[in-house]
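Fold it.
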Amino acid sequence: MPLQSPVTKCLSDLETRICALFPRSVSVAATDPTQPRPAAFPQEAAHLPQMREARRHEFLAGRAALHRAIAGLGWAPQPIPIRADRAPDLPVGICASLSHSRTLCVAVADRLETTVGLGLDLEPATPLDRGLWPTVCTRAERGWLAAQPEAERGVLAKQIFCAKEAAYKCQYALTGVLLDFDAFEITFADGKRFFATIRQPVASFTVGDRIHGRMDRVAGHIVTATRIPA
């Protein structure tokens, strides 16, 4: 059996950690945006000339991760172009989510018969700029932050941001509606779980509805995962 390269082994370990945030039906794939990527499908490559070089690397790494995650469900490889709203144009019957930083890209996918909403976000585990706290955090969330050890508040604010991004992606798959940060309020149940409570009605969601999430710290990143079962 051939030995894995250090990069491949690292990504494999990351996938295992992120898989633990979802049920077994969800397929997970991670890629490294700094590494060379296979050639894109022509329908995907058509978007590349309009992108800056860094964005091009992220896009190709993202598509490679999406292809692998969807292949893990038994789907044949196929192009995933960009929709008018900039979201991936996924194959019929698939629900997916994608997130990336400069050094890590992760995609998750599941069949719509099992999952109707997926949300994944990853952010470097660094403090959130304090000037953004009033924009990202509700009054209750800022009160919670104030009760935490001062040295941890910046990263915990980033954790709130990351949880809201995952919840936003999860609901967007169902509603197609753009929401602001104050549309959700995050509460943490323990070190690994959180709830995103809806604060304004949107499509089939009513005030007080909750999107359940899980999180972890992986490879210097905060990773948040949300899912709405079918």
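DSSP finds six helices and eight strands in the chain.
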